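F.,

This is the one I mentioned.
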């Protein structure tokens, strides 16, 4: 096993996950069937999983854009109070 390649390969971090329509457990977006329950996905399932993964990514980015500045502002005020 090549550990150096694993440390520099960031493609695993870019994978999109979505719940299986049958069992609800998380799977990779491009899978043909669920490896938990062996449910074979239809074209509609693929579209729903793609929409879900994009929505989750967008929500994560929005949370980061909103939460980070608020946290920094609160920390700034806390340090001002205890100065």
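My design for it:
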């Amino acid at each position: 096993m090549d550990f150096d390649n694993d440390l520099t390969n960031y493609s695993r971090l870019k994978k999109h996950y979505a719940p299986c329509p049958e069992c609800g457990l998380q799977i990779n977006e491009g899978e043909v069937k669920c490896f938990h329950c062996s449910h074979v996905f239809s074209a509609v399932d693929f579209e729903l999983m793609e929409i879900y993964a994009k929505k989750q990514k967008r929500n994560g980015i929005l949370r980061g854009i909103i939460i980070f500045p608020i946290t920094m502002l609160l920390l700034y005020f806390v340090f001002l109070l205890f100065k």
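Residues 3-81 form one domain.

Talk soon.
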